[in-house]
Amino acid sequence: MRKLLLLATAALAYACTSTTTNSGPQYSEADFSSDGKLFADYLVGSYANYLDDSDARAKYYARAYAQAPEDVTLGRRAATSALTAGNIGLARTLSREIQEVDQSEPMSRAILGAKEFTAARYQKADDYFERSTADLTVQILMNLMKGWSEFAQGETETARGVFANIGGGGYFDTLGKLQIANMEAALGNYEAALKGLDEVDEVGITPIESALSRVRMLSDKGDLEGAKEFLDGFIDDNGVFETGPVALFAETLADGNAVPSKLTPQEQASRAMTESAFGFFLRNRAPDAAEVFLQMALTVDPNNDKAKLWLGSILDNNARYDEALAQYTSIGSESPYAVSAKLSESNVYFSQDQDDKALEILEETNAKYPSFITRESLGRARLIREKYEEALPIYDALIASMSEDEIKANPEPLYFRGICYERTKQWDKAVTDFKKVLEINPDSADALNYLGYTWVDRNENLNEAFEMIRKAVKLEPRSGAIVDSLGWAHYKLGQYSEAREHLERAVELSPSSATIIDHLGDVYWKLGRFREAGYQWERALEFDPTDEEKLRIDAKLEGGLEAAADLP
């Protein structure tokens, strides 16, 4: 079964980026000459693709395709590039041109079919979706729309057949069952809908969407008490939902009101595409397919804020910051995803070293939507930027607001407050917090490492510290920071050969950590490898050391390791 699933995953990931097998037209020698615009535009488009410049990629691939309109492979690349750039108008224009040459090309059919489906011209949409394709990813995309198109036309049996045979196996079989359950609920067939949702929940691939579907169905049925009881149990099992649709539904039901239960066929299809993007494609390292699904989800339902949020995260991860911001800022203040959008927006500004702007957004968000997550985000932002004195009162207030059970369920605020205490020289308080974290979770590699490392650095409790760090390394053997702690412990005991071995490994695992590189320089110096020590210290300065680290490194470069001995 596992082998079959892996094979299906590989096939789907390949299908997203594959093109038609048509070899395309033959090009003349002039196309390769200095005056050959086709290849010039194609190369610029390819370079823009390498740079992740989506607008330029779409523009130049479209220009190249205009000069080779018989090349369906190139046309598909241009149309897909336009779609992922958010230029749906250009994507449709290119798709129409592709269809004039090859009506079987699947991506152009999906794009044009989506236009008709969005406009509720279902029969015209079906004309595009009807023909099957070996391109499994695009076939799934079209089937999600085709099933809901058939439902909208009253062809419920046909819709069931489409969803039951959606393609892709495994994950998509379950996603198809969720669509059928939603369809049965919309028809008022509540018993069949409940049975379908039970089957979906047994697999557990889309728990939140399945839970929301069940609450909508119970609410539509008039069973508000049953909806509330189910959702309360779901929250108890899965943790607190302070924001998002689960929190909104819980609040609505607590007030004795029914939740919105009627979704259009377009909204249903858009949500299914959104779930596929993250639930399958990103998890299987196919971000291009995820982006295509999310862009198509927004084409079908421009108000799908979850798709905007998830698309923004993909764009952000690819350093396409302006595009990510456009998605986040398009999510309205009344949306259940408003807080997540604001937190994500602040992260973009942090990524661009616009800390003041990012912190301003966090402050405004916390003032408007005060919650654990907004306060914790504000504290985390200050801590990461080494503003420990400012972070400490935030964590004090956060922990004071938590019950003992809540702290046991989430001891992270204690861990972060411990860091703040340690950095502000309140060591006894830091130890108390770290020890409490370890009482709650003895396998917290971060707490084991931080407490053990600091004890080593202070030449305190060395035997216990060693055991803590060794345990942390076993728990997280690929963490450069934790392996560094083990090396530094050996260093502090004068075991320089053992220290070198671990510190060289730590640098391999975390090659851009100024702290770890600096430590490696120190051990090289102790081993008499002075030139290599100086090289490592100089490298450490390239990776944004703290002010304290920079002061010590500068001293060592000037006068050797001993020159930093008297510094604080």
Helix content: over 70%
The major β-sheet equals: none
CATH architecture of the domain at 1-18 and 135-302: Alpha Horseshoe
Tell me the structural class. Answer: mainly alpha
Cα-atom radius of gyration: 28 Å
Number of helices: 33
Mean pLDDT: 90
CATH class of the domain at 1-18 and 135-302: Mainly Alpha
User: How would you name the oligomeric state of the polypeptide chains in this document?
Assistant: single chain
Low-confidence parts, pLDDT < 50 over ≥5 residues? 1-24, 26-35
What is the straight-line distance between the termini?
60 Å
The total beta strand count reads 0
Strand content: under 5%
CATH topology of the domain at 1-18 and 135-302: Serine Threonine Protein Phosphatase 5, Tetratricopeptide repeat
Q: Sum up the overall morphology in one term.
A: globular
Q: What does this protein look like?
A:
This protein has 568 residues and is mostly helical. The protein has a domain at 1-18 and 135-302: Serine Threonine Protein Phosphatase 5, Tetratricopeptide repeat. The chain is 75% helix and 0% strand. The protein contains 33 helices and no strands. α16 packs antiparallel against α17 (287-300). It is globular. The N and C termini lie far apart (60 Å). Mean pLDDT is 90; it is low at 1-24 and 26-35.
